[in-house]
Amino acid sequence: MSASIYLDNNATTPVDPDVVQAMLPYFGTQFGNPSSKRHAYGWTADEAVAIAREQVASLVGARPDWVHFTAGATEAINWAIKAWCFGNEGKGKHIITVATEHPAVLRSCEWLERLGWSVTTLATDHRGLVAAEQVEEALTPETVLVCAMWANNEIGTVHPVARIADVVQPHQAALLVDATQALGKIPVTMGSVDFLACSAHKLYGPKGVGALLINGDKPRLRLEPWMHGGGQEFGRRAGTLNVPGIVGLGAAAEKAEGLLDQEGPHLARLRDGLEAKLKESTVVVINGEGAERLPNTSSVTFPGVDTAKLIGAVPELAVSTGSACSTGAGKPSHVLQAIGSDLESATLRLSLGRFTSEEAALRAAALLSEAVSQLQPVPLD
Q1: Catalytic residue selected from 85, 147, 198, 325
Q2: Contact status, residue 183 vs residue 161, Cβ threshold 8 Å
C-alpha cells in the first residue's frame, strides 16, 4: 500500500489492540455456542455475550435486554424499517426520512414506496442540518415511522435528535436513529428514541457485527423477527451468534465510553488544526461549517480542482472522495447534492481517528495544500 496516512476512519476503523485481545479466546479455547445450555463451553460463550450486551447498553444509557446483536447497522436498519412498517401498516403507510440519510435507510424506504408506502424526504439546509420543526410539520395521522441519523457519515453534521424525539414521542410513529457514526465520538443517549442502530467497525471493533436497540420502556414497540430460525436474541433475530464479534463490539463500546470525554475534544483539536492549515494555504470550503459536527470529520471542497487529479497527487493519503464515484457507482454524493455543494469540484472526506497523530494530521494538510496549489485555477483580478 502506498498510502501512509490513514484518514478514512468514517469508512472503517482499525480494530483496537485491546479489542483484539478480548476477542482472541473466543476464536480458540472458548469456542462454544451460547445456545448450548448443557455444558461449560456454552455457558462461557453465553456469559461473554451477556457482558457485551451490558457494555453496549451502558454506552447509550440503555438496558442490556434492549440490545439485539446483528451483522451490522445495515441489517439493523433494514430490520427496524421493514418489520415495523409491515407490522403497523393498518395504522398508516407514511414514512418520514431525511435526504442525507445512509443508503440503508433511503433504499429501504424506496423499496417500501414501490410497495405502496408514502415517503416524505426532508431537505436539509446548506450545513446538512434538519430541524425538529420540519419533522413536526411532516407528521400526519398516517405516519408510522421517522428515520433520522444521529450524525452524517460524509460531512459530520449532528442532528438535534433529542428535539426530534420530543416531537415524535406523542405521535403513533416510531423514531429510528442510525447512530453508527456518532457512537463513541460524541455522547449518545437513547432517551426517547425507539430504535437505535450501530456497527462495531466504526468504533474500533470488528466488521460484520452491530446491534439494534429496541426501547424496552415502550411496550408498544413490538418488532417482528426479520430472520426466522432458532429463536436467538429474545426470539427476535435467529441465527447462531457471532461470539468473537459480539465480544469485540462490547469491548469497543466499553473502551469508547471510558475515552469519550478526552478523545472527542482531542480529535476536534486535530480537525480544527487541519482545517486552519488548509484555509491558510488554499481556497477551500468546509462543508457543514457552522453546525455541530462530529469532532473527527472534515468534508472539504476545493473549487475548480479535479477529483481524480487531486487523489492522484496525494498517494500518501487514504481518504474518501465526497463527490462523483464516492460510492463506486459513478454518481454524485447524495449528501453533497442535498446541501447544494459544488459537484464539479473535488470534495474529500478527511476522517481522523484514535490512532491519528497531530503530526499526521498536519502532514496531510500540507500535502493537500501543495497539491491543490498546483491544481487550483489562479483567480483573475
Answers
A1: 325
A2: no
Residue that the C-alpha cell 488554499 belongs to: 282
| Cβ 66 vs Cβ 214: under 8 Å | yes
Q: What sections of 123-160 are H helices per DSSP?
A: 132-138
- The cell 416510531 sits on which residue? 174
Host H or E run for residue 313: helix 307-313
Per-residue pLDDT tens digits for 305-361: 999 999 999 999 999 986 433 444 467 899 988 888 888 899 999 999 999 999 999
Known active-site residue 198: no
Does residue 138 contact residue 119 with C-beta atoms inside 8 Å?
Answer: no
Residue with the three cell numbers 469456542: 31
DSSP code at position 208:
S
Cβ atoms within 10 Å, residue 142? 14
Residues across the chain: 381
Element housing 309 (H / E): helix 307-313
Report the alpha-carbon angle 298-58-26, nearest 5: 90
